[in-house]
């Protein structure tokens, strides 16, 4: 198991290095200059700007300095918002995005597991088709459609919730719902297919034969085994919530990190895009790694089994 | 199988309309009628018009062309790279397989949409860039599926028989193994089309996708969003189209996958 974790950690580190390196060199391969725009800037000023941002150094020196900065947690400056660093934006925006994402996951995972279990227990009956149809729709409706529909229906027409912006809890309700739809549908689908498989096992049949009601068997014996694989998907699910938050934050004008990402993309603020990409990637990859760790701890079978890829 | 039939029905309509739709109305997709801007759906503009008086009906079907093209192209390229990679890894085995699958693991750990965003920021917007960006790490899922298929298929006796008859490895791979692995591959490919369509809309929504005056669903959604309060049809039609398309591909893909995996089939009554 130590070997398994070591392997995973190594893959994490290599992937991180790939992201950081490719981000750095791709950003430097862009033709053009961040400071030359419509205004004419005197050469002396340009030179001092270059030396301020370290752009007068050879590229490998810049690369090493960037790596060093990242190891110290420094993600570099923003070019458009002069004098502010990427770290400041993260400190401001990330708590908001994190709260939103966490709320969405806390809503999505229990609901998804419940719906999936219900569907599996009633396999082939109307509950099954209803929940699975709902989950296919949930996977298919893109978050921008859902978000704008919620905004249109519940805020503009029914006046139940604030239209946009960030404030009290009531501001978070619609964005959370819009963000939670996709993971809910995904978890429901996953739980159902695992549960269907588990419910065919001999120990379930034994429990049923002893006269324990289906509901109790499903919850006590089935769910334990069925939700384990769901845990492995927590990593990809959190990635989905993150990218979903780009859209949701834009629709609801929430000042989270996703908004800043969009701003920096639209303003072509390359150091900031670079910094945020590195931050998001690190966050997600560490997430996936922690989920793997958790899974290994929870499922004793994985320690015995030889590692498989599929 | 009702849902699969529904999905095929919708998809056929969609493909046909993508071909003939833009020619049904008398407008072109970029024709501007400023006097008639933001008009609601009527006999003149079947789906209404946008803030420059462009006909939304024509633009929707133009968008269908773009979305379907990107979806199918990205899925096909993913499939080709993935099948080749997965097959070679599984068939050769040993150290080569180990190395190839490790490369997959590393690439897989990199968040998909972030890489797509990064590449489009750097390479500039455009259809080709988008497809390149999507396929750069999109093939990994396919390679994994393909590998596990080939691993179990190559145990079969007919492979040994073909080898005994003197068939070359290429022949065994392309005439015996890949055709037998095609079922799950096609199901996975169908399911990757909506992802590609979503990604296109996502990029256009962020302002990184197709540029005006070209029409894509993501661009129209983005435009429609700002006008939702007073001109809801500008949001409604692109939202409806993109949802229907993704739903149909998902339904079809799920039906294909379920029919290939008997464990997930509902009990026959």
Quick summary of this structure?
The complex is a heterodimer of chains A (310) and B (269). Chain A is mostly helical.
How would the blueprint of this fold be written?
The complex is a heterodimer of chains A (310) and B (269).
Chain A: H1 2-29, H2 43-52, H3 59-71, H4 86-121, H5 126-140, H6 143-157, H7 170-198, H8 202-209, H9 214-226, H10 228-232, H11 234-251, H12 257-266, H13 270-298, H14 300-304
Helix pairs in contact in A: 1-3, 1-13, 4-5, 4-7, 4-11, 4-12, 5-7, 6-7, 6-11, 7-9, 7-11, 8-9, 11-12, 11-13, 12-13
Chain B: H1 2-24, H2 56-92, H3 94-109, H4 112-123, H5 127-138, H6 140-153, H7 157-164, H8 169-205, H9 217-226, H10 233-260
Helix pairs in contact in B: 1-2, 1-10, 2-3, 2-5, 2-6, 2-8, 3-6, 4-5, 6-8, 7-8, 8-9, 8-10, 9-10
Characterize the structure shown.
The complex is a heterodimer of chains A (310) and B (269). Chain A has 310 residues and is mainly α. In chain A, 75% of the residues lie in helices and 0% in strands. Chain A has 14 helices and no strands. The two termini of chain A are 18 Å apart. The mean pLDDT of chain B is 81. In chain B, 48% of the residues are buried. Chain B has one domain: MetI-like (MetI-like fold), CATH 1.10.3720. By secondary structure, chain B is an all-alpha fold. Chain B has 10 helices and no strands. Chains A and B meet through helix 1, helix 5, helix 6, helix 7 and helix 11 of A and helix 3, helix 4, helix 6, helix 8 and helix 9 of B.
Q: Can you give the mean pLDDT of chain A?
A: 80
Query: In percent terms, what proportion of residues of chain B is strand?
Result: under 5%
Q: Largest interface here, residues on each chain?
A: A-B, 54 and 50 residues
Residues in helix, % of chain A: over 70%
Task: List the defining traits of the structure above.
heterodimer, A: 310 residues, mainly alpha, MetI-like fold, flat, B: 269 residues, 10 helices
